[in-house]
Amino acid sequence: MQPIHLAWVDYTILLAYVAFVLGIGFALTRYMKSSSDFLITGRSIPTWVTGLAFISANLGALELVGMAASGAKYGIATAHFYWVGAIPAMIFLAVFMMPFYYGSKARSVPEYLQMRFNKPVMGLNAIAFAVMTLFASGISMNALAKLLNQLLGWNYHFALFICSGVVLVYVLKGGLTSAIYTEVLQFFMIVLGFAPVVYLGLKDVGGWSAMTHQLHAVAQNPMALDLNTKSFAPDAWTSAWKPLLGGPANNPMGVDIFAIVFGLGFVLSFGYWCTNFLVVQRAMAAKNMTAARNTPIVAAIPKMLFPALVIVPGMIAVALTAMPDKNYRIPPPIIAPAAYTQAVTAVQNANPADPVAAVKAVGDALGKKVNADKITALVAANAANKLSDDQLKEGIYKSVAEYDYDSVIFSLVKKYCPPGLLGLALTALLASFMSGMAGNVTAFNTVWTYNLYQAFFVPNKSDAHYFWMGKFITVVGIGASIACAYFARQYNNAMDIIQLVFGFVNAPVFATFLLGMFWARTTSIGAFLGLFGGIASSTLFHAFSLAHGNLPGVKGGYLGSHFGWNLEFPSEMAQNFWLASFAFGVCFVLTLVISLATRRTKTDEQLKGLVYSLTPKTVDHNQPIWQRPAVAGVALLIGCVVLNIIFW
Amino acid sequence: MGLDIRWPIGLMFTFIGALLSFYGVVHHDASISSAGGSEININLIWGVVLLVFGVLMLLGAVRGKKTPPSA
Fold first, then answer.
1. What is the pLDDT of residues A611-625, one digit of tens each?
2. Residue contact A27–B1, C-beta within 8 A
């Protein structure tokens, strides 16, 4: 792809956005008087604001890019990450768990674990979370800087520093409040910036039914587009559930119903939405208990509709690729210009009578798989009627049989957006990046200051000291994220390993919260050893399992292949979902058994407000009916079921 | 906290909406999208949408100022 040239109108939109987010930071500076104003907002923010911030902090740039990529690879079934993998957990958080997080007056999720159990359990959770947020933020920063480099030709270092610099300034000025307020602005920016791209793309393919018609043809023969190595039923890209019912062999995700419902819908989803401080922190900043409980409910409404914004573009891209007259393909991986020149020479020198050798020569020149039919046709066309170098290059570009799915969304932005709209869409991309980063940084500085620094290293200092530390660690946190971004840039493989480790740490954690919050008998020793055992078991599971087509190593199976015994899964996704289910099961059973075998150290009185059965139920009869989390939650679940039926 | 977020959101989208529709009018040819056959001035249309959204946010902020904050 050639870098896109921006017009003055695009830069003006970009600068206006930056000016407004910085302005919000500066406007809030005068309210920052204590560590709690800075780190936990002093609990004063209205529901709709915390609700949209809740969803915006989750909607990082990687989500936008990744979901469009999955939309192309797997179709509408990607929506399970929303309708199965998010909504039920968000409602559970609102109705059942928020009363304990908010009511216990804990300042963070790890701090709840300290109140419920003890310091070691909190420490384990806090350290894992702190390291994870820094790396998560670094990974996404690296991705964004790379993208701006490819897309706009911006200097990588400049992109990295300017974007994190803006986040640093507004978080440092206005703390968590500033992050939350800007997240709301970013939410609207992302939605309003990407919506026209989806609209134009859908209009171009001829509307929804024309798109599904194309996708039916693609599903029956994905090999023609090199999308998959086998064929599926016509609705494999356009139905969410029917392909899953046919088993892992019959859907492009390669997963079964159990993996989706239990692995994704229960273990991974509840583990993320109900225990990840990054999102829960937004709800904890709400002005009162009702507002806190309604935060995930408000967030669930846009979350339910996001597939239209983030998954549909991927499906549009596949449909367009299947329509020769649209002159579009999902971009191939970046290939150096020199390799293209070599490939052009290879086509020119090829003998039309020996297509196999020609295909091999072009493939070797590019270092990628190529579509044999397309290259053969190109060689024949060139032999019949000399093509120009540019025509040949174009033909070779179209015949690369590999896809860089992550660039789907930007290839559509580039295809459809004239100057003006282009600036808006790019600003939306920057906004999604910044909201994700600010989310990570504000969660990190709170956990560090209160749960690690104050709890383990320097207790009993004045609030002014912790206020200072909160600001100081914000700068350190952003610096460390930048370092992680460079690390990610250097060692792609190392980043895979780190993401894997997060998977191990996160998979079992919901079992600890579930038992801790809903079973008074759970002991601290049980919780600590259960969590540890869960993490260890997911590591082992990974070492003995492998997805079809992968080699033992980072993708798993390294011990299994050593001992000659591996669990084999049809896809990586299936492997992940089963790993999470297994780790959850181990953590749950271990915590349960060890708790029964050990003595309780906390009395019922001490656990009041921390455990469901020992806490007076939250009364919301005095609220208007639509403000009651349980009522709104049920209404949302019904909406979610309806969506699942429509796209069945 | 003493800042109604509807002010900055409203101001920003009013500005961007006005800018985009202005650009759509002045640079009419560059703003045309012919995706799907029919030609539309997408900058103008979307600029107006953003402008309306921005103004609605500002109206909300003005109303919120008159009545004590409740939401």
1. 888 888 877 777 788
2. no
